Amino acid sequence: METKENITITPKELASNQPLIAFKNVHKYYGSNKVLNGINFSVYKGENLVILGRSGSGKSVAVKCLVGLTKTDKGEIIVMGKDITKLNEQELNQIRMKIGFLFQNGALYDSMSVKQNLAFTLQHNNKKLKEHEVDAAIIEALNNVGLLEAIDKMPAELSGGMRKRIGLARALIIKPDIIIYDEPTAGLDTITAHEIIELISKIKLKYNATSIIITHDLTCAKYTGDRIIVLKDGIIKAEGSYSDIENNADDWVKSFFEK
């Protein structure tokens, strides 16, 4: 697998920039269940932040809060300078249109071809585009994920890895400020998972993308993350580089690396 080169964000660079995303003492409860228990973290422009955690750790809920699909019970979530917890639905939609989302299962419309799936997303975001502009954007997005030949295929004709790639093309086609990857390697064989990991790294290099990668896959975390936070029961148990996490003294964090 290719290693990341010249893409790590240094502490000095982080200190000199305002975060693109900031969670400030964010709480989310479902009854007596504290899914997020006062978490604090930031994501900076051009950074890949991995949120690592097992099922039920709160990582998916954190992202749902980030895009306003779930309301927080306490705290602030600053996205591109705005506290999304205080926005109305129209204002939230303006933020959402700047966020590309790769869903875990690709989430393509089964009744639409690949081209129609991408065109629908692009035209939803920008209704003023002309047909030739839409076609050019589709070709660019598919070339970015190496699947131009699939342009006229239906989702049922695609493998799991291809569906993920098309899902990523759909996320990229709107030229987002932020990309969210939800378990990008889940359900894939090892070779296909490695291809997706390399693609995430290439997207970062090409577009200086700012991304949040939700995963429980250590290989994905290692090769895509500039920085990693580890969630357990809605609390951040560790934060740092992959090496920092791997050498963390906490027994629970160590358990991630036990064979």
TrEMBL record:
Q: Which UniProt keywords apply?
A: ATP-binding, Nucleotide-binding, Transport
Q: Where is the ABC transporter domain?
A: 21-258
- Can you provide one Gene Ontology molecular function annotated for this UniProt record? ATP binding
PROSITE patterns attached to this UniProt entry = ABC_TRANSPORTER_1, ABC_TRANSPORTER_2
Q: Which InterPro entries match?
A: AAA+_ATPase, ABC_transporter-like_ATP-bd, ABC_transporter-like_CS, P-loop_NTPase
Which PANTHER family did the record assign? INTERMEMBRANE PHOSPHOLIPID TRANSPORT SYSTEM ATP-BINDING PROTEIN MLAF, PROTEIN TRIGALACTOSYLDIACYLGLYCEROL 3, CHLOROPLASTIC
Task: State the name under which the record lists this protein.
Answer: ABC transporter ATP-binding protein
